[in-house]
UniProtKB/TrEMBL annotation:
Protein name, as recorded: FBD domain-containing protein
Domain FBD: 39-115
Species annotation: Papaver somniferum (Opium poppy)
InterPro entries in alphabetical order: FBD
Superkingdom assignment: Eukaryota
Pfam families: FBD
Length: 115
């Protein structure tokens, strides 16, 4: 599970890779509120960038959690892996994008970029 050392405050820009999400969030399962209890971290967050996105469940759960809890979030940039060009990967990415667009958000001014 992901652990923070010290107090994390006033984070405005968060950049992660999909590999980080897979390796560090596998044990969080569906209890995201308990796994990410540092709500002060989200109060200033304006930009989230995730590289190497494959459209997996952990990525979707993480982004859903961030959309739900980041009140001033303005931009989400998702950089998809080149392996998503395969037929199955393409379907998974289309489903992932569709699910993200349908999710409720805490901020009313989010621009989502799929790159």
């Amino acid at each position: 599970m992901m652990k923070f050392v010290g107090v994390v405050r006033n984070v405005r820009h968060l950049t992660l890779s999909s590999g980080f999400l897979e390796a560090n969030l596998a044990d969080v399962e569906d209890d995201w509120d308990a796994g990410f209890s540092l709500t002060c971290m989200y109060s200033h967050l304006k930009v989230i960038e995730i590289g190497g996105v494959e459209g997996c469940d952990n990525e979707l759960k993480f982004v859903r959690f961030m959309l739900k809890n980041s009140m001033v979030l303005e931009k989400v940039n998702l950089f998809f892996r080149s392996t998503s060009d395969s037929l199955d990967g393409g379907r998974q990415i289309r489903r992932f994008k569709r699910n993200l667009r349908a999710m409720p958000t805490a901020s009313s001014s989010i621009k989502m970029n799929f790159l």
